[in-house]
Amino acid sequence: MGGGQSKAKPAPLFSEPWRQIDWGDQRRDLQFVKTYKPQTEGQQLRILLHGPAGAGKSSFINSVQSVLQGRMYRQALVDNTSHETFTKKYQTFKVQKESSDTFYPFVFNDVMGLDPHKGVLVDDVKLALRGHIKDEYRFDPKSKLSEADPFYNKSPTSNDKVHVLVCVIAADTVPVLRDEIVRKVLDIRKEATRLGIPQVAILTKIDKACPEVNQDLKNVYRIKYMKEQMEKFSAEVGIPMNCIFPVMNYHEETNLNNDTDALILSTMRNIIICGDDYINFKKNQDDCSTNYV
Ligand SMILES: Nc1nc2c(ncn2[C@@H]2O[C@H](COP(=O)(O)OP(=O)(O)OP(=O)(O)O)[C@@H](O)[C@H]2O)c(=O)[nH]1
Ligand SMILES: [Mg+2]
């Protein structure tokens, strides 16, 4: 079974949750995400999701859209076969505001799965980080996007560049994460670090990894096994624990649920804070360098 836990024995619990979530009252996080505005007019916060095929990248985008729109949303196509990566094109997902024709100032991109041989090339993810890939580019697992290609963006603006890199991994695969995937994640992280881009991780499918979470999502920060999986993943790819967020994506439900929303919103709040800090840092850096010429 997922995570190799014994079905018979209940999972050991911490007496108190080790992280606080506003279960049942996520108005604070909802308000934050709904009212977020970058300091500079017209600036977009670009969030790039990467990770193995079937980890739940597209489902996370849909889940965030669902929570913000107050109804189930299925814009990013999701696949149930898990044989090979389903997302093949580079695409920007905007989130429309509920009551108008305007969009939230953050956008998502997800890339083809990271799988060896048939997944996205690390070099292409690096190009995406620097804003060089245009929308609708169809990834080729055999060759990197060339500068001569019409989908190569030669002069990316600040809005085209990525401001937060999110590694998406299914929690039930942490115990069996393949070395090739870990190496790819590390390689992409190295480039993001070189560019100063903040990085977080989302552990999806926590309902599959642990039956106690499936029974009650509020157990997520009380179950020792879940914390161990986060620590294991953190040690493997070097993302600190305070940048790792467990979520359950909407995957079989047809109605929204407060607890599912609470985890998704608190994760989004943290992603936005990381990206916004980076945008402001870059802007200050650019302002300083213009003042000195
Ligand atoms: N139980 C459960 N299933 C999930 C969760 N998130 C996603 N899924 C399911 O996992 C499968 C793959 O999800 P996708 O969102 O297509 O994964 P992806 O990372 O976009 O995959 P590729 O585009 O193929 O790289 C789908 O059947 C989803 O419904 C989750 O949190 N819990
Ligand atoms: Mg996908």
Automatic annotation (TrEMBL):
GO BP term, pick one: immune response
Superkingdom as given in the UniProt entry: Eukaryota
Database matches in CDD domains: Ras_like_GTPase
InterPro entries in alphabetical order: P-loop_NTPase
Name of the protein in question: Interferon-induced protein 44-like isoform X2
